[in-house]
Amino acid sequence: MALDVDAIRARIPALKSGSARFDAPGGTQTPQPVIDAIAEALTRPLANRGRTTEGERNADDIVTQARAALADLLGADPRGVVFGRSATQLAYDLSRTLAKDWGPGDEVVVTRLDHDSNIRPWVQAAQAAGATVRWADFDPATGELRPEHVSAVLCERTRLVAVTAASNLIGTRPDIPALAALAHDAGALLHVDAVHYASHAAVDLAGLGADTLVCSPYKFLGPHLGVLAADPEFLRTLRPDKLLPSCDAVPERFELGTLPYELLAGARAAVDFLADLAPGGRGGRRERLAASFAALESHEDALRERIERGLADLGGITVHSRAAHRTPTLLFTVAGLRPADVSRHLAEHAVDAPAGSFYAVEAARRLGLGDEGGVRVGLAPYSCAEDVDRLLAALARLPR
């Protein structure tokens, strides 16, 4: 099945601004059904969760429906879906909880490919516990993070491996099941940052082999929110810091304070929107999501290849996204020009493609780009061939 991109674009009000948007890796634009779900949640009675009053029931139903939707998206158990302010906040909360059992002699593995939200929380938690941090490198020439890069820093004292399922900077998609097998053979947990990955590929928590996994709905057409998924039986073994009277059940024991019900309603609507991206999808929501992501990958890969061909024809442009298996996310630099100046030039031609390291500062430095990074072009379900042509035309007009 193919995406009906015109139909998708017609349901996203922000696209009426007229810009060709390649900033989706930093956050996608919001479809009208998601906006409507948020508004509906706020216009109906709301109260703290319960089953007595209408407001209590509305809140409780929103939370239950959102957990079910995100569980379908991630191949998880709804009882193991935790909501938070952001993936960064959830990583910090989880790292502090796990680090209660770490001490001198224990080791934690992070990679130089990752967004800093999947590095610094683990580094800081390890340092506070007196544990040792080991760094898994990646090959800057190819952008690949291979299993041997991780196995080289594993040992019997490794307690956790933190790795991205897809680089938000250069799109590299490591072999997560292989890394999970390595981590588990060493007796370690595997934490997966799927924030960028979940925007472009169907997620299967068990299939990936992740013990814990995070994503962010605002990267896949939803509101600003963070989600953590894990086996609820594993979550029951963890004792996070919490208020004395707050709920001690799983997953509620990990959710600090009152949940943003309206954002959860929007997250559920975003998953439903994704499930119906491919016209004519059949089956339950999980099955329709699989069909939608298959169609989405085909659509985005075709546009990515179109961009790559165009960049090669222009000359003077170095593309740093080179891994054999990657998302439709391209980081490039232009000879003789600062990335910020290229991004500014594109903006003047109504093409939104930001520049920087995008919090993947370790990866940008390893690539030799420093903290300036490069210009990042990312695709989304609403990206179209006309957008790509506008991008390439604007780059062709760069002052050299």
Write down the Rg: 21 Å
Strand content: 5-15%
Mean pLDDT over all positions: 97
Strand order of the largest sheet: 2-8-7-6-5-3-4
Low-confidence blocks of residues = none
Helix coverage percent: 25-40%
What is the 3D form?
A: globular
Q: Label the structural class.
A: alpha/beta
Q: How many helices?
A: 14
Total DSSP E strands? 13
- The helix/strand order is HEHHEHEHEHEHEHEEHHHEEHEEHEH
Largest sheet: 7 strands, mixed
The CA-CA distance between the termini, in Å, is 42 Å
Structure explained in plain terms:
39% of the residues lie in helices and 14% in strands. The chain has helices at 5-10, 32-43, 54-74, 87-98, 120-129, 147-151, 176-185, 205-208, 232-235, 261-275, 285-314, 339-348, 361-366, 385-396; strands spanning 20-21, 81-84, 107-111, 132-136, 158-164, 189-193, 212-215, 226-230, 317-319, 329-334, 351-352, 355-356, 374-378. It is an alpha/beta fold and 400 residues long. The chain is built from 14 helices and 13 strands. The chain starts with a helix and ends with a helix. The strands form three sheets. Strands 2-8-7-6-5-3-4 form a seven-stranded mixed beta sheet, with helices on both faces. Strands 9-10-13-12 form a four-stranded antiparallel beta sheet. It has a two-stranded parallel sheet with strand order 1-11. Helix 4 runs parallel beside helix 5 (120-129), helix 10 packs across helix 11 (285-314) and helix 11 runs parallel beside helix 14 (385-396). The longest helix is centred in the C-terminal third of the chain and has 30 residues, at 285-314. The model has no long low-confidence stretch (mean pLDDT 97). The protein is globular and about 65 Å long.
